Amino acid sequence: QSVLTQPPSVSGAPGQRVTISCTGSSSNIGAGYDVHWYQQLPGTAPQLLIYGNINRPSGVPDRFSGSKSGTSASLAITGLQAEDEADYYCQSYDSSLSGSVFGGGTKLTVL
Amino acid sequence: QVQLQESGPGLVKPSETLSLTCTVSGGSISGYYWSWIRQPAGKGLQWIGRIYTSGSTNYNPSLKSRVTMSVDTSKNQFSLKLYSVTAADTAVYYCARTLVSHGDYLGYFDYWGQGTLVTVSS
Hints:
The complex is a heterodimer.
Chain A: E1 9-12, E2 18-23, E3 36-40, E4 47-50, E5 64-69, E6 72-77, E7 86-94, E8 99-102, E9 106-110
Parallel strand pairs in A: 1-9
Antiparallel strand pairs in A: 2-6, 3-4, 3-7, 5-6, 7-8, 7-9
Chain B: E1 3-7, E2 11-12, E3 18-25, E4 33-39, E5 46-52, E6 57-59, E7 67-72, E8 77-82, E9 91-99, E10 108-112, E11 116-120
Parallel strand pairs in B: 2-11
Antiparallel strand pairs in B: 1-3, 3-8, 4-5, 4-9, 5-6, 7-8, 9-10, 9-11
């Protein structure tokens, strides 16, 4: 059971918009700690997608955006492309556990 | 472009010690935090811990009693030791550079190694 809860799967057709939620609690996201997002393509290492809730590293398309409110955060992907098919993970700090924690991951399927 | 490469035995016997090294190239190891993260097959990511180039460490409390991390700045390397391993420690182990933001105590991971599979089995 992950401290940060993500839907196991989401799907969308090419060109559509999808969102992936990351729900935490008062000891992590709700406490104001930053949320970061990673994309893991099949058989590869995770790659940083969003850091500090809303920031994109250089090279990440602006089709990817992050937001945070209360005890939750979201990753939005617009103009869905086949190459976006991957697993997505959120990450934050949890003060109760005194450690970095990840969500359980969400598998994005492009129909 | 910073690159990280994990190395170490791919097979470890139960109750023995898992030892991995991460070699950093394309940049200096100094002045950064460096982390280990693992992923069992078909499962999610678990943060193991991080080390600063001064040698200061933070470990996942669930693993703290079995983990030691070290750094060798002269070789641009940092290492992980996990003691008394069991089958539950079988996973792909990643090393990653760690950046700290104002809103995050332990940081996020901007460069990752390709990962190395460690299997615990007799």
